[in-house]
Amino acid sequence: MKLELNTENLLFIIYLGAFLLxxxxxxxxxxRLIFKQKxxxxxxxxxxxxxxxxxxxxxxxIKFLPKIFEQDYPEFEIIIVNDRSWDKSIDILQAFAIKHxxxxxVEVPDLEKDGFAKKFALTLGIKxxxxxxxxxxxxxxxxxxxxxxxxxxxxxTGSKNLILGASPYAREKGVLNxxxxxxxxxxxxxxxxxxxxxxxxxxxxxxxSYTQELYDSVRGFKSHYYIPSGDDDLFVNEAGxxxxxxxxxxKEAITVSIPKKNFTDWWYQKKxxxxxxxxxxxxxxxLLTLYPVSLVIMYILLPILLVMHNWWYIAxxxxxxxxxxxxxxxxxxxxxxxxxxxxxxxxxFEVVMLIINPILLFSNKKKKKRRHGFKRR
Length: 377
Fold this sequence. Notes:
Blueprint: H1 7-29, E1 48-54, H2 58-69, E2 76-82, H3 89-99, E3 103-107, H4 118-128, E4 133-136, E5 141-143, H5 148-154, E6 162-164, H6 175-197, E7 208-211, H7 212-217, H8 233-239, E8 245-247, E9 255-257, H9 263-274, H10 282-308, H11 312-336, H12 346-376
């Protein structure tokens, strides 16, 4: 077959290039999560401080704190920071403190200012922790097993002082829940697999562990303290390296998060999370951009090639192979995260997020321009 350099063939070459980029991500990065991790055997587990920041979480505290106390671990303390709650959180926390001598409450002073962010609460919690090993979970999350803490802490071996875990969302009814779970699952596959490759760029504070020494070495959240979010991903982006970061990924090691119930709440949550990405290291941003852009190119060029090109059947076969490869590689990670029902729907929800994410990014930029415009006036 002779390939002449005309418009149709040039589009076909671009299509092939985008597909090869997709192949690179699946076969170099994402495939690393299909292999079962070797268990780590440690003779003596180090004591751990679990740090939780909570604001108006009275119902979640009642439901989920007992699951943390039930952890099968020799020595740990729970430091919970009551971040200016105005519900009955403090009463609930004091009741737990009476029952458990390894439970400590830190109060964030309410100075009637809303300038405080989660980073301030976590800073106070870390300062109150008496153990070198820190593990983080959110108040609206719960460990998937009694071995969660053991799984996280046991990965602190040798030079590994930053441990990344996964925290999928709970399965509930409705299309929105499926979108939320798919989005979180896809993100987890990306950051965990890249970390296993030696490129840690983010983590989630719902399931994260690092040492006091690492926290002090980068002066905590100082470099990005002015940004309201990013206590987890920006910290990992700054402190994570090829040699100091490890991944723990199994059913026993995950924590489960409670998803938003309506589209508006989830929309604003996503907008807030996306504001931190622009502060990542440059090569991280390039890696995270090439994947969706190459996929968008494939989907844009596919219908054009089906109409214009003589080798339309090859173009169709390529996208079919890519979809099949995605499903095969996603099977194990999605099962671990409780997303088995989304495997066959992954291509559909991927397209949905390819539409939603640019809209969110654009709206954030538009909001920023409007804010700067007000300042100039």
